[in-house]
Amino acid sequence: MLPEKIKNRGTPVAETETDKPLLFSPMTIGGVTLKNRVVISPMCQYSAHDGLANDWHNVHLGQYALGGSALVFCEAAAVEERGRITHGDLGIWSADHAAALKPVVSFLKAHGASPGMQIAHAGRKASMQRPWQGHGPLDDSDAARGEVAWDIVAPSAQPVNDTSLMPHDLSVAEIQSVQQAFADAAGYTDEAGFEVLEIHSAHGYLSHTFLSPMSNHRNDAYGGDRAGRMRFTLETVEKVRAVWPAHKPLFVRISSVDGVDGGWDLDDSVVLTDEMKSRGVDVVDCSSGGIAGMATTTRDPLPLGFRLPLSDRIRRDNDIATMTHGLIVHAEQAEEILQTDQADLIGIAREALYNPYWARHAAQTLGADPDFADWPDQYGWWLTRREAHLKSIGVR
Ligand SMILES: Cc1cc2nc3c(=O)[nH]c(=O)nc-3n(C[C@H](O)[C@H](O)[C@H](O)COP(=O)(O)O)c2cc1C
User: Fold this and answer.
1) Among 38, 39, 41, 296, which is best to mutate for testing ligand 1, by the most ligand atoms less than 8 A from CB?
2) For residues 72 and 41, what is the distance between their CA atoms, to the nearest angstrom?
3) How confident is the model at residue 305, as a pLDDT?
4) Please, what are the domains in the chain?
5) What does residue 92 show for φ and ψ, rounded to 5 degrees?
6) What is the torsion angle, in degrees rounded to the nearest 10, for the CA atoms of residue 85, residue 86, residue 87 and residue 93?
7) What is the pLDDT of residue 11?
């Protein structure tokens, strides 16, 4: 049963300031106000040691606060050691992991961004090589470098594909222990000072593999019909919500569709969202794919904003805030998504690797910050004068 304090904390409030584009209007979710709608989507860096954040994470994530994004998500952080995708994954399974993230949190807050954490368990996609080291299961060549493979887990003993490692199927006691690890991770995330938490239930990782009939072949309470397959995710949401402070927003990222015949589909996601909403989830982050390969592996080339129909349907049918992401490239494109009510938050990933200042440039394009007033003083003072000079010599 949902505690009263969670039930009554209100639905997200989007502010519309007539003189501002929606992309640069604030939004309040629970007790957290995001200064605009640009979110840095979680992006694994595979650069941690023993799951601990380091200077790479500080600079990588810090640049997005300077770049003007309202909410900056840390990459997927594993709730237990065997839940990492690679040896380089971030972890959040101890107080030491929380402590290592505090400098990131404090820099983001100091520069106007809300720090977000994504907690995850890779399930049968764990024990892998980094993308640039082969992207396959860890093997002898990795062991020679000191990166040894480990035993992996899933709802059922079925590998991702013919070349993947075989997971063992979790017992009910093991399931409960993994769920407790998610709840503990929520506690460590709060301890580190994060303001927003996202549960990763997408892309073929553990929670998604419980949901999908492609990967869950159990015949106990955690499998079978849709209600059984949803049990792991919903119980995890309940356990996390019980630990995560009521005023702090909770997001869940789902693969809204598997995109394969007989897989999890959008109707399933609408039902799941309804159940998650009644358990205190504020925002559904609408992703797709990944059950049998990479999340972006499809038969056809993906168009700009390819996940929008998913966010649009879930938002309308469930009356819940959604985040969309997936080839959102242009400021005008992002603004139109919000103007046409297809999502509430705009996730930017690869575009932010290309241009960490995407949000600030979008504000210029949409006329929300023509005079560099929102930039850090250390930059804005110079850029205003540079702009005036460029105009005076006819370059602008
Ligand atoms: C380098 C990289 C790492 C990623 N790591 C994660 C992750 O940790 N968790 C997650 O849910 N999605 C992850 N994704 C997916 C992105 O969050 C995003 O959904 C996807 O890239 C589509 O958005 P884009 O077209 O703006 O890149 C990653 C993507 C990239 C490019």
Assistant:
1) 41
2) 7
3) 86
4) 4-365 (3.20.20.70)
5) -145, 55
6) -10
7) 64
DSSP 77-143: EESSGGG-SSTT-EE-SSHHHHHHHHHHHHHHHHTT-EEEEEEE--GGG-SB--GGGTSSB--HHHH
Task: State pTM to two decimals.
Answer: 0.96
Q: Given this model, what pLDDT does residue 32 score?
A: 98
- Quick check: CB of 255 below 6 Å from ligand 1? no
- Distant-in-sequence, close-in-space partners of 339: CB < 8 Å, separation ≥ 6: 22
Pick the closest to residue 131 from 43, 62, 63, 52 (CA basis).
Answer: 43
Separation of CA 327 and ligand 1 centre (Å): 10
CA distance 68 to 93: 30
273 by DSSP, 3-state: which?
A: helix
Residues 6+ apart with CB under 8 A from 355: 67, 361
Instruction: State the Cα–Cα distance between residues 131 and 154, nearest whole angstrom.
Output: 22
Instruction: Report whether 206 contacts 293 (CB < 8 A).
Output: no
Q: Which residues contact 142 (CB under 8 A, 6 or more apart)?
A: 129, 133, 148, 149
357 is catalytic: no
Residue-wise pLDDT for 239-269, tens only, equals 999 999 999 999 999 999 999 999 999 999 9
Of the residues 46, 64, 188, 205, which is catalytic?
205
Q: Which of 102, 139, 126 is nearest to 209 (CA)?
A: 126
Cβ proximity of 287 and 256 under 8 Å: yes
Decide whether any atom of ligand 1 lies within 6 Å of the 121 Cβ.
Answer: no
From edge to edge, which strands make up the β-sheet containing 27-29?
A: 13-14, 27-29, 32-34
Look up tokens 């049963």; give the residue: 1
327 Cα nearest atom in ligand 1: 25
**Composition of the chain by helix, strand, coil, percent to 5:** 40, 15, 45
Q: Chain centroid to CA 59: how far?
A: 19
Q: Ligand 1 centre and the CA of 351: distance in Å?
A: 10
The stretches in the chain having pLDDT less than 70 are 1-11, 15-18, 296-300
199: its two tokens:
């549960």
